[in-house]
Amino acid sequence: MSERPGPNVPTAFSRVLPAARWEPVTLGQSGAEVWRSSRHLLKIQPHLHPAVTSLADERERLRWLAGRVPVPRVLGYFADSTHEYLAMERVPGIPMSHPDATLHAERMAGLLARALRGLHSLPPRDCPFNMTLPVSLRLARERVAANVVDQTDFDDERVGQSAVEVLVWLVQHRPQTEDIVVTHGDACLPNFIVQGEYVEGLVDVGRAGLADRHVDLALAARSIGRNLGQKWVDVFLDTYGRELVDEMRLDYYRVLDELA
Questions:
Q1: Which residue ranges does the record assign to the Aminoglycoside phosphotransferase domain (predicted)?
Q2: I need a surface site. Which of 30, 74, 197, 245 has the fewest CB within 10 A?
């Protein structure tokens, strides 16, 4: 039997990533190639359009979040002429979307709500990353213009629509105000690692930054509905704080994610 090929580890990482048995990680839709060993994680991504989240973006956010919320420790970053590489320590535990985690749907819904409340309680004045609507809509326009939006991955409500049509809707229905907090930016179940009763790590934080709290609530609610069942969305929102939730904004930020 032939041995499974491993990742292309840059020689620059020879000190931080010792020889190991690597396996590919197929969970998630970040667009990056992801490999894990028993102790480490390696992400590899080709250089994409500037409006697409880079691994350098993720590195900077991981460094800022460290000590504030649980995130993987950055071991190294490297870029060559074609790709960029990000090495991290592997967070112990399993994603909230793992079958073993989804057996405990009520617990996962509550843990996710409390994890987001903790993140959203960080002082916004301390966060250097701006992902508010002026920035997010500008990036969306750039991605549409560059034709890097995957129109085949739209939610069922927008199947058949073009990226341009979605962008026009977003501009026409833009909320007049934003409830700004420090957000994860891609708050789906696979991006929260749990072990027992605790959230051990937030991962894939390349879109983290100051934004409306509904950026996270919208994607978390959608992910809970898909992975755990629609009835647990109410548990999630009630635990987070129903008084803070605007249903129209949940709809808006789900649409905005189509162009992310």
A1: 22-249
A2: 197
